[in-house]
Amino acid sequence: MANFTKIPDSFKEEYKKKFIQLSNDEIQIQSEKDPIIFAYYFLGKKVRIHQAYIMIRILKAKAEGKNRVAMCLARQLGKSVMLALFLIWAAWYNKFPATITNITTIYLISRDDPASTELLDKIRGILRDGDKHMIQYVNFDNFFDGSLRDPNNTHQITFLNDCFIKSIPPTGQVLGKSASVMVIDEAHRLSCEDPDKFFNQFVVPTTAETGGMIILSSSPEGIIGFFYEAIDPEGKHEDNPYERIWFDHAVFNDGSKESIGYQKFVADEKKRLSQEGKLKHWQQEYGALFTVTQSSFFTYEEVEGAIEDTTKEYEWKDTPCSVGYDFGIKTSRTVITVRTMFKDKVYQLFQYRCPADFDTNKLIDPAWEHSIQRLKKRYNLFMIIVDDSAPGDTINRWLEANSGIPLKKYNFRSDQMSKSDGLNRNCVAYSYRAKLKEGKLKIPKWNLTQQFEMKIIQETEQKVLISIKSPDGQLCDTFDSDMMACIPFLDMEDSYSFDVDIPRADDIEEEEKGFKYDSFHSPTDDECKQMIEDANEKIL
Asked: Do 174 and 206 contact (CB within 8 A), yes or no?
C-alpha cells in the first residue's frame, strides 16, 4: 500500500484564508513572505491546494535545515506551474541568497536540454501573464518584463536584482556551478548515460558549499535510481535526508469543474491503457506507483512470488547439482551459482559474487575457497555451464580438459545463437521465466542482489531481434550466472531435465538413501538418471 502524503485539515483551513481581500500594504508584506499570495496578487494565479501545500513544505524543510526535497507526483497535477511560480517568487525577492555575490541562483534540469528550456519558457510565459494581470494596478504593461536584464535568452532569465533562473542539460555542464536551488524536473527520466552518476558527481556538489537546496520532481519510472532512493517508497532508509511528498491523481479532487474533468480523464486513460495491456503505464503516470516498467522482462509480482525462504547451502550431496559461471568485464562481476532440483522445484543452493577486480584464475586454484576443486567436494556436480566469452576463454578450456565434469558453453553476452546448441541468452531467459511462472523455479530470500537485478531487466524489441538485458548503468551478472546454472533443469531442447524427489539427509538415514556420490566422480548422464531412479524407487 502506497504511503501517499495527506494534506492536514489545518492546512486546508489556512489555505482558504490566504485569498481574503488584503490591503495594498498587506499584499506587499504578505507576498514577500508567502509564494501563494505572491502568485495570486502579482501573477494572477490561484494555486490549487496541493500545489500550495508543496510550496509550504519546501519552505518548512528549508527553515528546518533540510536542503533536499523529493516530490513524486502523478501526471497533470500542475507540478511545472507550481515550480515556476515558486522559483519566480524566490528570485524576485532573493529568498535564497548564496555565493559571494549574495544572490539567488537557480538552475533547472529536466529530461533533456529541450525539456529544460521548455520549463524556462513556461516561466517566461507566466511572467507575461503577470504583466497582463498587473496592468490593472499599474500604468505600464511590462511590470515583470521591465524588471529583467541581460542575460535574458532561451536558457536564462535574469532579474534586475541579479538573481537568475537558468536551464542546463543533464550533462557535465553543471560541474563547477554554485547553486542556491538546483531543480531536477522529470528526475526519474533523465536522458543521459548514467543518471545516478550525473546526479551524485555533478549535481550534488553544486549545493555543497552554498548550503543550497536540491528539489527533485517526477512521476515514477521503475524501481531503480537516485529518485527512487530519494522517495524511498518502502521506507527502508531511516536517515533519508529528503523531505518527501508523494501524491497520486486522487489529491486533485476538490469538486471543482477542473478536478472533475481531470478525474474523468484519468479514469478514461485507465480504461484505454488497460485495454491496450498497458496498465503499468497508468499505474506509474497517474497512480504515482513505483512499479516495474512496461518493458520489464519480469513483473514485480513474478519475482516476489518466486521468493522462498530457503537457506544458503554451503554443502549439498542429496541431489545432482549444476554450476553456472558468468565472467565479469571491468565493472561487471564474475558470479558462481549452484542449482539443483528437489521435490520438482529448482532451488538455488549457493551464489558467490566476486569483487570487481577479481582474478578469474582463482576459479581453478585449489587453494581458493570456491574453486572448482572445492565445489566438487561440496556439491554433487554433474554439469558446468559457462559464459562462452573472451574473459573466460582460458578458464573454460581448463575446465573442459581438467574438471572431469561435462561442460557446456553459451554466449550470454549477445543475442546470437550458440553454434553448438541453437540456444542464446533469450531462449534461456524465456525458459527461465516460464519455469518461474509455473512456480517451479525459486529465488532465495537471502539473495537480494539477484532479486533487484531481475526486477530491472528490460526486454527491448529492436528491428531484427529482441534484447533482454539490464538498463544502462546497471548489472545483471547474478541473474546471468543463475540462468546458466538452471539450464539443465529448464524445459528446452538439448537440455537436461530430472524428476528428482529425494529427501534431505536429515529425513532418512544415510544407508536408506540408496546411493552415495563420490565427490570427485562426475557421473555420466545415464548414471545420473539411474541414481535418481534408484533413489526414488528406494524411497517409494
From this structure: yes
Q: Are 38 and 49 in contact (CB under 8 A)?
A: no
On whether both 241 and 312 belong to a single domain, the answer is no
Q: Is the pLDDT confidence value at 388 over 60?
A: yes
User: With 80 as the cut, is the pLDDT of residue 464 above it?
Assistant: no
Burial of 240 (0-12, 13-18, 19+ CB in 10 A): middle
What's the total number of domains in the chain?
2
Q: What is the DSSP letter of 205?
A: G
Helices (H), 233-351: 257-275, 279-285, 300-306
- pTM as predicted: 0.63
Domain that holds residue 101: 9-220+227-251
Look at residue 459 and tell me whether its pLDDT is greater than 80. no
Do 233 and 309 fall within a single domain?
no
How distant, in Å, are the alpha carbons of 114, 251, 267, 278, 281 from that of 271?
31, 20, 6, 10, 12
**pLDDT, tens digit, for every residue of 12-29?**
999 998 988 889 899 999
- 269 in a domain, yes or no? no
Q: Is residue 293 situated within a structural domain?
A: no
Residues 6+ apart with CB under 8 A from 264: none
